Amino acid sequence: MLKKDTPRGTRTGFTTGACSAAAARAAVIGLATGAVPTEVECLLPNGDLVTFAVLDGRVDGHTAHAMVIKDAGDDPDCTDKAHLTADVRVLPDHAGQVVLAGGVGVGTVTMPGLGLVVGGPAINPVPRRNIEANVRLVGVALLDEVGLEVSISVPQGEEMAKKTLNARLGILGGISILGTTGIVKPYSTAAYRASVVQGVQVAGTLGHGVVVLTTGGRTEKFVMAEMPELPEPAFVQMGDFLRYAMGAAVKAGLKKVVIGGMVGKLTKIAQGETITHAGRAEVDTGLLADIAARIGAPAEVCEAIRGNETARYAGERMDALGLGTAFHTALAHKVIETLRTRYPDQFELQVLVCDFDGKKIAEAS
């Protein structure tokens, strides 16, 4: 439970997986007792016991229905207020078995590389185990005699999925049921980070041997135009999560990694940052000043770049001198040099640089 004086922006919430497990547990209790409870205690993957409010509970003979509304806390999650719904039915000839299915609003896996069965529901491994564990905890007597099918659905899931990367990952028709601890931390980036890793894994199954990592939508559009021969799933918006994207590329055995970006994020990578969020580290304008000096920029311009706080300023000063292409090419080479020290001889590297209008400036490989 949260106190009234919890500071704004710090309130934790619960994952889609935890809410699904709670709904499933409540529905099984309904089958066992004849009435779905209005609240249910649920065991989370991290070992915590949490009480969830249960809505729309009903029992009809050998089936039961329950719903838990997701509270994402202060996390700006597109699945906040999703109705995680469980429909449980008895399987008379399958004593002891718990069968998990996906209903309306839960995505269907259509591509390999996610660690999930192609054609099956997009319910990740930890939530799967957590749902089954909760079902077995309260359904012991039932499972001695019958099996139970648990179908998870999310009525708003198809619309919510349009705000996620699911379609890019080959997850169609709804959201994914996610969560490794059951808890959503405020302004957590765990879900996006996980989607980046999954995206790289999918790229690794395509047979092209290449993944294209971009820092956002503008850079992705730019690189897609530069590399039209590649299918859409080969492109992954890594955002700030270079470390996780590159680690996934190593595990996937990819032969080539292409990075598309603009001057700010590329500078962060060149200076050795593996998480490039603005709040993690300042741009090393000294590095940019040194690059500018090497390509012949006047000393006073280099000092102005060194004393400024943004990478964009450096790029604009170089453009004004007619040195923009040379400057961004040298920066791209510095990115490759830095990444080579962390990932020596593990894959070919290429860097494509665009301006703030999404137009190509430079490249290096």
* Uncertain residue ranges: 1-6
Write down the secondary-structure element order.
EHEEEEEEEEHHEHEEEHEHEHEHHHHHEE
Global shape = elongated
**Measured on Cα atoms, how large is the radius of gyration?**
25 Å
Number of β-strand runs: 18
Question: Mean of residue pLDDT?
Answer: 91
Strand order of the largest sheet: 4-5-6-10-7
Helical content (DSSP H or I, runs of 4+): 25-40%
What is the SS-derived class? alpha/beta
Total domain modules: 2
Range of strand content: 15-25%
Task: Report the major sheet.
Answer: 5 strands, mixed
Can you count the helices? 12
Determine the N-to-C terminus distance. Answer: 53 Å
Account of the 3D structure:
The protein has 365 residues and is α/β, with parallel strands linked by helices. It folds into two domains: 13-184, CbiD-like; 190-364, no CATH class. The protein contains twelve helices and 18 strands. The chain has helices at 16-33, 125-138, 140-143, 157-161, 190-203, 217-226, 242-252, 263-270, 285-294, 299-307, 311-320, 324-342; strands at residues 13-14, 39-43, 49-53, 55-60, 63-69, 83-91, 98-102, 105-106, 108-109, 147-153, 171-172, 174-175, 183-184, 210-214, 235-237, 256-261, 348-354, 360-364. It has a five-stranded mixed beta sheet with strand order 4-5-6-10-7, covered by helices on one side. Strands 15-14-16-17-18 form a five-stranded mixed beta sheet, with helices on both faces. Strands 1-13 form a two-stranded antiparallel sheet. A hairpin with a 5-residue loop joins strand 17 (348-354) and strand 18. The longest helix is centred in the C-terminal third of the chain and has 19 residues, at 324-342. 45% of the residues are buried. Residues 1-6 have low confidence and may be disordered.
